[in-house]
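Case study 2.
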Amino acid sequence: MHEFNRNGGLTLVPMPGYVKMAELTKQLIEGGERHTPVDIVTPQFGERASGEPFIKLGSDHIGGHDCVILMSGPGTYKTLVQIYLLLDYLVGRRAARISIVTGYLPLGRSDKDEGALEFAIAAHFVHMIQCAAHGKLDRVIAADLHAPQVAMAADHLGVITEIFLARRLITGAVEEARRIQENICVLLPDDGATKRFETTVKKCGQTMGIELPLIYATKRRIDSRSSALGSLSGDLDRLSGAIIIAPDDEIATGGTNLHAAEVVKSQYGAKAYWATAIHGVLCGAAPIMLAEKSSAIDRVIVSNTIPVEDRDDLAPLRESGRLKIISWAPDLAHIVDYHHWGKSVREIR
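Prediction:
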């Protein structure tokens, strides 16, 4: 007999690309501490001959249920339209409560004004989903916001909850590196990365009982869309022969990481450079550049907050062993289960 939950039964509603993750999340939740029963309802999206979008979604396991949409960005036109339609349907099917858990917040990279003709539009996603849900959206839970100010863009406090996956990612990268050698350094590529990861790196080292030398870098902005490594400080004498783990919230085109890898190898004698990011956007020329044997980046380590396992353009990178994926499924299961039972998701840190 399960404890009564005022939000109803728990139903996962996966967006395209998140069906396998929903199935794994269901297994982890049902096999977890509370053995919470989980239903999965998979919407079917399509286009009519005219090009108009449609969605098929019945009412089974939705009416009276606590419905959690599982999704991720980036926010393409197609993704945005699908989430708006899905939210409206869930309201129409009488969901008791509607929430979104997104690995990567759609439009998360649109966090800066790009000149006179282009506003920052990251907050657009928040405003639009609230409208699509007719005010019945309870919460958006997002991993490691690339645009932290989005949390303040909602109409009222608490709509956006940010959770952090840095400890799982950094620990996984360090454990992988220690299988090769003990000489490991952590490179924080800019002030933002220092603020986000410095404390976590130190805690990971303490938990593992090892010292993780820190290298601090500055980022030199070339233009609004590209940057390069600036000066380095910290334990520079530890760089020679080291495996460099460079954590950041995301890796997009990989240009900044490539320049950093070239510098620490050519000027400081580093043995290897591992670009480590929570969100593997991996767009533009990144899949080709990172798969090249001559690339100064020896390994890319990402979580699957953005699904990367089935991307055809990343197949050469996966097959070469240069791409390692650290699953966030255990965290996702905790988040959904904690949220369903009214516990603070921040407790999973």
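The mean pLDDT is 89.
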